[in-house]
Amino acid sequence: MLQGVYQVGRRDQRASLPPARIHVHWGESTGGPAMSIRRAVLTLALAIAAVAPAAGGEGRRVIRDKTLVAWVCVANLAQRGGSVLTLENPGGEFDAIVFGELAPARWMAGSNFFLRTHRNQGDWPAESADPRTLVQIAIAYRGRQVSIFRNGQPYASYTMTKEPAAFSTDSLVLIGLRHRDAGGGRFFAGSIEDARIYDVALDAAAVAALKPNQPSDPKPLAWWSFEGGKAEDLMKAFPAAHLVGGARVSDGKLHLLGGTSYMIAGCEPPRDRASEDWPTWHVTALPDEGVACPYDANGCIWWKGTYHLMYIFQDRSRPHGGHSWGHLTSTDLVNWTYQPTALAPEPGDPDTGIFSGNAFVNKEGVPMLCWFGINAGVCVATAQDDALIRWKKHPRNPIIPIPKPGQPGHGVYTVWDPYLWLEGDTYYCLLGGNKLPNGKDTLYLCKSPDLVTWTPLHPFYEHPDPTWTTTDEDCSCPDFFRLGEKHVLMCISHKVGARAYIGRFDRAREKFFPEQHVRMNWAGGMFFAPESLEDNQGRRIFWAWVTDPRIRPTLNSTGSGAQSMPRVLALGPDGSARIIPVKELEALRRNHRRLAPSAIPADGEVMLHGVRGDSLELALDIDPAQASEVGLKVRCSPDGKEETAIWYRPAAKKLVIDMSRSTLRTDVTYGQPPFFAYGRDKAPEKSPFTAVKAPFELRPGEPLRLRVFLDKPLLEVFANDRQCVTQQVFPASREALGIKLCARGGAASLRSGEAWDMVPATFLDRRQAAAPMFYRPRDKQTGVMWDTWLFLHGGTYYLYYLAKSGGQWDNISLATSDDGVHWTERGRILAKADGVTWMGTGSVWRSPAFERDGRFLMNFSEWRGPRQTIFFAESTDLLHWTRLGSELEFKQDTRWYEENGRWDCIWTIPRDGGGLYGYWTASPKGAAGFGFGQSLDGTRWEALPPPQIEWGAAGPLHSPEVGAIEKLGGRYYLMLGGRLGGAHGMWTLTADQPQGPFRPATANYALLTSTGHGNTYFARFFPTPGGMLVNHHAIARDGMVYMGALKRAIVDKDGTLRLGWWEGNEKLKHEAIELKPPQASAAPLAMLETPLDPRNGVILEGTLTLPAAGGKAAGLYIEHGSGVGTAILVGASGVAELGPIQGDGSGFKPENRIDRQMAFGPAARFRLLLRHSLLEFYLDDVLIQCYSLPASATGRIGLIQGGASKPPGDLRAWR
């Protein structure tokens, strides 16, 4: 893990750090050298090498008092932390108009470390504009006074506690990205129609007078109108802007996608991932993982035929940096699959992030993971399946806590990067980052019989030779294992990088005695944080994070993170280390070429004309003869200005990679420590190191045998299986592809050689492979899904569902998601008690005393004999639940309710005066209805008489079940399940008061219902910062139960509740499909030429022209058998009918009629979601129907023109 020790040459403007060597720590300080280990990555993220603002140049204007103004459309009110206009100085000081960073949906004046930001924003108005509504936001800075305006009206104002920041026309301007070092939620999603900077503080009247795309008095200092498709400052104060990550200008607007898109003015054009060299057969960080720093390999294990490689990355959607463990699997060490995140900090966990650790197998033969939990200590988790996808964290984490002052161990040992293993019947744990009194590095050893009770022992080793290491080297990222007759402690020092001790492990004394010290990295090198595994062939295979020499702005634009190629570590006959590429990579070889023996003249070069490229393997057998230097040059440009040399220097006994001419780029620098470049806005004029020099000596008469691997920027050089040097090089020229042999000081010769092109490996992304469209659990232990309910907290969606793994509903299970679309199974959280027939459904709410006790509460029911009773459980993290005692059972109040009637699923809303009102499924005496009551603490409930229901002419629902109730606007809306006539589903009741009376909605009463092949039930509300959403389950024709796509609750001006398309579901669209429209035909049904694959889900969108009054309905045909299908036909008023139809367009039999009682224009946009036999159909983003086809769709879809003037068109599709 990274350690924060850096030499800073100028004052860090953001952190106010003095010019000195900085030691920062994470968690409780134990004093001494351990302090230097703690806050590494965070320090990097805060720019460890800040520089002062640019000095004034010609035309430079200083900006003190100012006004930032932007006219924006917000794509998603739930987004957090993007900026619509930022001014940023070098070093990271910034002021910005930021949306939702501290409080959901609130505009704020963002600043570095919130120095000029007012934090208490709870009373500020929440933004409510839809994605098509233009909103003006302005922030005026006058001295310390900050005034925020929305649409020309005062929004908020405050006085800064700190001095205002000064900017200039040398500062950067950003739109979309909060600031260049921002963490999670840093990008804004939406569009910007106009953005301006004034170098005066405008008052309310002046702000109100501003109009988008119109001049103003006073004139702005800078003005981006985005007219003419250009992102340029009309006032010429700032240089031309660059668009990054899919940002585009069209229709007079800057369009920002939100994921990685932004505009930047005031610096060189930023590189992006598409234009940058990127490895093709090495494991690398995925685009959405951004700058993976750290990117340590961790948790490596071979298990039941599969190689598992974990790695640290930063999930920016999580707080505290989001340090998590990603997970890759492979069966051949060549092709890899990205699996769901293995470990992440969850709400309620004792640790706030996942740092370095390892994998091991416990006494029961089950794999476990061990890691340093930030701010907690050593933590462990146990695999829940043989694929090692699901992990359960130990309830006693941290099993070895960080000692606090006054506790045993405080000042004795540091709890840091652990390594845990089982030796016989004893668990041992090594704690990284410790020091001996003489200053030498060591680890501290602890042992335990059960992973819970730990005995601290002693320092694990003391190396015998002071020359092996230098001052300030630590031992972190330990990896301890047997190798042959010896033991190896592979580790890092943060100062230099990867290294290893080889020696003897005395089991009786429980100590390690190093006999050799082997460096794997040297000054200027990039080899850091190695981790190993032993496979079924007995090979010790390891990887390491290859750090990046590019400076921070480039890293932020392209992302970063690469693992070395897998290598085998072995011991030679003399006991020295052997480092050998794994043989499996030979599968990537193509275009084999043999190189003829040739002379290499003294001080000359020999171009290998048949060998050229940036993805190669070279195997060279060279006789150094009399040369003082011999080797080769790779990535050579045609003009000779760029080349990277690989030298063997016999006299110096060195193997060298010389980067002095590797690149003409100004954003690449090589220094020490290995992550030297990460915190720098600018590279020094000259790199501190221009070569990496590793010790290496040929034996008398031994040829130099080099194996050189190139994968775009990655260069790995193996010499005689005894040494390896690793580097990243980034030539500016795309033509830097040449290879040359070279010698100096004497002639040498190539005895033989071979070359291969290396083809890309296959990398599959299965991180979100849980069928995002119409999710259902796949874990057999979880079972079949039934009723669902959701809760959103801390940016995570928690999906709870009633489930059965046998013949009864016997458990409540959980899945989680970061976006409401892609779900990760978490397994069971509650199971039915002994003697219970089956469980019933529930819901989750916060305790009324949540601010004090931090409790979440869940209710559920259980049937014992003929009686159903409601029980409760509590949690502090929404993941781990504890059933509350029987004293809190909630039973039928027989004054108003049947003793053995339904009693199930309390749904709560706030109660005036404190506490909660509850509504639940019940059997009131003498009438159809539901239960009603109140509670002050959320667990002790008082039943009240059932609310009055004015059922109306249609009569009462049969077997009503409470789905959910919420106050939307000024009215209460209750979604009630049941049957009415031949229809089954969810119906809407409304009330003006929480106690009722309730009455059927006057329009769209049948909210989510169907006849015939109905499939949808039990809709539930759940609030989000972007508005109220609804979830429900759906039953496919084969009986499998899925959760439908989340819906938006829409209440129109007349108070009618409808369900609509939720913008977050756009993430269902993984890959666009090129559609071939049907050939022109007079037939009533025209089939698309492009077949679609509905097995994993497909989305089809287009425009549906509605027929004239009295004309035949138009719509879609979905085939699900030979010559048969289902039609969705829409008439002139927007009323839809669904039913079977023949493949020639004849014989339509409507079996489901839906009237959403809303007006449509002459044409409407439609959206069809289709997976297996399930479909959802929308018109103008309003849900028309969910439906189950008689059989799984074949993927063939047709267009039915009917009486419309033209068939459905403007078609687009996604898988």
So what's the CATH class of the largest domain?
A: Mainly Beta
Instruction: Compute the CA-based radius of gyration.
Output: 33 Å
CATH architecture of the largest domain: 5 Propeller
Outline, from the CA principal axes?
globular
Helix/strand structural class: mainly beta
Overall domain count: 5
Number of helices: 4
The CATH homologous superfamily of the largest domain corresponds to Glycosyl hydrolase domain, family 43
What is the straight-line distance between the termini? 40 Å
Strand content of the residues, in percent? over 45%
How does this structure look, described?
With 1215 residues, the chain is mostly beta strands. It folds into five domains: 5-45, no CATH class; 62-265, Jelly Rolls, CATH 2.60.120; 581-763, Exo-inulinase, domain 1 (Jelly Rolls); 784-1066, Tachylectin-2, Chain A (5 Propeller), CATH 2.115.10; 1069-1214, Jelly Rolls (Sandwich), CATH 2.60.120. It contains four helices and 87 strands. The strands form 18 sheets. Strands 4, 8, 9, 10, 13, 14, 16 and 17 form an eight-stranded antiparallel β-sheet that branches. Strands 40, 41, 43, 48, 49, 50 and 52 form a seven-stranded antiparallel β-sheet that branches. A six-stranded antiparallel β-sheet has the order 7-6-5-12-18-15, with no helix packed on it. A hairpin with a 2-residue loop joins strand 28 (418-423) and strand 29 (426-435). The longest helix has 7 residues, at 552-558. It starts with a strand and ends with a strand. Mean pLDDT is 88; it is low at 1-58.
